[in-house]
Design brief:
By secondary structure, this protein is mainly α. The chain has a single domain, classed as Amino acid/polyamine transporter I. Helix content is 78%, strand content 0%. Helix 2 packs antiparallel against helix 10 and helix 6 runs antiparallel to helix 7. The N and C termini lie far apart (59 Å).
């Protein structure tokens, strides 16, 4: 029991990671993977979660050992590494929040039957509301508010998945011919799925900053073992939920010929109906609320992370600029992220597919390099030999880098051929 109490006390970065990851990669891409390609897509989902694990673990490890962010670790190796991470961060800044807020706006419109205004206006209202919560409540509010949401979501998805499995696959799926996976369309979808499963590799820096914030409010700093245990709970939960969404998409849509829409409001209605078909129409409102709460918490977490990491990068690249170290700089960054991403939403016509494709491009291509930078950081002189990753974890890291590199090279070849 004492170990459980310690784990609950240390809950923070792993919980936030789970909340942030259970967004587009799970609700959108995992469900779509099961609906279009069936059970076979469990292979890339599991591979992505296993082979990308070390990259995120290193963010927790480095901060726990050195009391510095992983971003500071990049700077310690040389400014060129920080500039590389800054480039990827810029892409995240202009795309990830926009994609998440569009989906969330669609779920909100579906929940309350909003038809008088467009997704862009609803997204703007969400930006204002969530931005205000982050500025006023800061990290502790974010952490505390997500504990109940993630717990309820996990139980609800577990029950729904069991009911879906009990009911069995939809008629016609046994004779259905799945689309070609290794043509241009299939590979592009695989790249989106793997690139965002469980999330983008650059999020290792986000986890590192959350770990630093989590330690600030503690009387006693968690040990490296305790910090990794907490993160592992969130990471495993994230992987399991991805499989749940895959199963739901596979057993309810595979073989039906149903196309999941690229428009957020239509997609939201389709996803909610997936659940109510197997539970009953009486549960429509409850499921709609749960789906919205899931994406709402993801937006909050990602908005905090993108703001936090953008500010940290700017502070380290331009240390002599006092504007980045002002006491209100975090609040200003939160507002700036909202404005930038709302402009992106307006410019893309709130088309979720375009936003996801743009967000995954640079992130996916740069993932092997970011992974290598993370390994180089935790194997550097800042980390004592005894607390560096063991051989098994390093071997898994190299496998992950090769895995991502092969896909990245193949993707680039497809673009230039």
């Amino acid at each position: 029991m004492s170990k459980i109490r310690v784990l609950l006390k240390n809950l923070g970065p792993g919980l936030l990671f789970a909340s942030m990851a259970i967004g587009t990669s799970h609700l959108v891409l995992s469900t779509k993977a099961g609906a279009q390609y069936g059970w076979i897509m469990i292979v890339p989902i599991v591979l992505a979660n296993v082979l990308k694990y070390p990259f995120f673990e290193f963010g927790i490890r480095y901060t726990s050992v050195t009391d510095q962010s992983l971003i500071q670790g990049y700077l310690n190796m040389g400014r060129k590494y920080l500039w590389i991470y800054a480039l990827v961060t810029v892409v995240s800044t202009f795309t990830i929040l926009a994609a998440l807020y569009v989906v969330t706006a669609g779920l909100l419109m579906n929940l309350f039957g909003i038809t008088e205004v467009g997704e862009g206006i609803v997204a703007l209202c969400l930006f204002i509301f969530i931005g205000s919560l982050l500025i006023i409540g800061k990290y502790r509010f974010l952490e505390n508010s997500l504990k109940a949401v993630i717990s309820i979501l996990f139980v609800a998805l577990l029950i729904t998945t069991v009911m879906v499995i009990h009911k069995g696959v939809v008629p016609g799926s046994e004779t259905y011919q799945r689309p070609e996976l290794f043509n241009e369309i299939g590979v592009l979808f695989l790249i989106s799925l793997i690139g965002w499963m469980p999330t983008a590799v650059e999020a290792s820096g986000w986890v590192s900053l959350w770990s630093m914030e989590n330690q600030k409010g503690m009387k006693e700093k968690p040990t490296l073992k305790e910090a990794l245990q907490e993160f592992n709970v969130g990471y495993v939960m994230t992987a399991i939920l991805a499989v749940f969404f895959l199963i739901i998409g596979w057993m309810t849509l595979y073989g039906t010929g149903t196309e999941l829409s690229g428009k957020a409001a239509v997609f939201a209605d389709q996803v909610v109906n997936l659940f109510t078909t197997h539970i009953g129409n009486w549960a429509y409102f409850l499921i709609a609320v749960a789906a919205f709460a899931t994406m709402f918490s993801t937006c909050m977490t990602a908005h905090d992370a993108v703001s936090r990491v953008s500010l940290d990068v700017l502070q380290k690249l331009f240390p002599k600029r006092p504007v980045f170290s002002h006491k209100n700089s975090f609040a200003v960054t939160v507002i700036l992220m909202a404005v930038i991403n709302w402009i992106v939403i307006a410019g893309f016509g709130a088309n979720m597919g375009n936003l996801v494709a743009l967000a995954t491009f640079v992130s996916f291509v740069m993932a092997p390099l970011i992974g290598w930078m993370n390994l180089k950081t935790v194997m550097g002189k800042d980390v004592p030999v005894a607390q560096r990753p063991k051989k098994g974890l390093r071997f898994l890291t190299y496998l992950g880098m090769i895995f991502l590199l092969v896909f990245a090279l193949y993707y680039c070849w497809m673009l230039i051929r």
